[in-house]
Amino acid sequence: MIWLTIDIEKITDMNFNVLWKKEPVLDYEKVVDDFLSIKKDHHATAFILGTFAKKYPQIVKKLYKNGVEISCHGMYHNLVYKEGFKEWSKRVTEAKDILENLISERVLGYRSPSWSMPFEKRYYEELARVGFEYSSSYFPMKNYMYGNSIDRKKSFKIYTKFGTIEERPILKYTIPFSGGVYLRVLPLSVLKMLFKKSKDSILYIHPYELLEDNLLKRFKEYADLNLDYFLAFYSFGSTQKKIKTVLRYE
Question: For residue range 51-96, what is the model confidence (pLDDT) as tens digits?
């Protein structure tokens, strides 16, 4: 079984330097319905941004009612290492409270925006202090925006004075492949091979990646074209087809 995860935020929250001219038209309700149709019997987790939950509480409740684990993606989609530690802690707690009030259940998981949480014990200690039990914030490759130079591929535990936190890294086999731009640009044949080699399978996607038509064309009227725009929306083939194939639906 593959752990299916989705990072739910508004498309304009992304950390790519896309220069938006106006707010894109995107039916988040429809995209979430598509995600639920893909989910089927896989364990699925939605890491939801606090600002998104405040604007679309009905979507959070729909996901929860349909068996999706609700987890926290922070309050705003800011890069954690650019925020002050105290501000980050305050916002994470705020977002966790919003989600728990909506579903009347504890929120146990956290994923930092763009894998940007520093790999420092004080961050995990703070997550444990406010009641999280696991994180999925570790990206085992360094790039210009995020990631770690230490290559840790398997889940591991961090022991703190407030309890134990499990960290569940993103998949890597020479290069990352299990979501985002990597999933969009790699050919389906390569993805099938890489997922087959992986024992601890995790898949991560974003709402806009479930749209079937050409993303570059769909959003070009809303933003200035630059390299970040290309990185954010280029896809080699249908991402939804890739997801369904990897999940063995096609």
Answer: 999 999 999 999 999 999 999 999 999 999 999 999 999 999 999 9
Give the residue ranges of DSSP H helices in the chain. 28-39, 50-55, 57-65, 85-103, 121-129, 180-185, 188-197, 215-219, 227-233, 239-246
HSE at residue 231, side-chain half, CA atoms within 13 A, is 11
- Provide the percentage of residues in the chain whose pLDDT is more than 70: 99
What is the topology classification, in CATH, of domain 3-246? TIM Barrel (3.20.20)
Kindly report the backbone phi and psi dihedral angles of residue 24, in degrees, each rounded to the nearest multiple of 5, phi listed first: -65, 150
Predicted pLDDT of residue 249: 66
DSSP, collapsed to helix, strand or coil, labels residue 84 as: coil
Please state, in angstroms and rounded to a whole number, the distance separating the CA atoms of residues 203 and 245. 12
Q: Which residues pair with 3 in a beta bridge?
A: 202
> In what order do the strands lie in the sheet containing 202-205?
156-160, 163-167, 134-135, 109-110, 69-72, 44-48, 3-8, 202-205
pTM exceeds 0.85: yes
Nearest to 202 by CA among 161, 153, 157, 164: 153
For residue 105, is pLDDT > 70?
A: yes
Contact predicate 17/144, CB 8 Å: no
Geometric angle at alpha carbon 52, from 51 and 56, rounded to 5°: 125
Cα–Cα dist 77/51, whole Å = 9
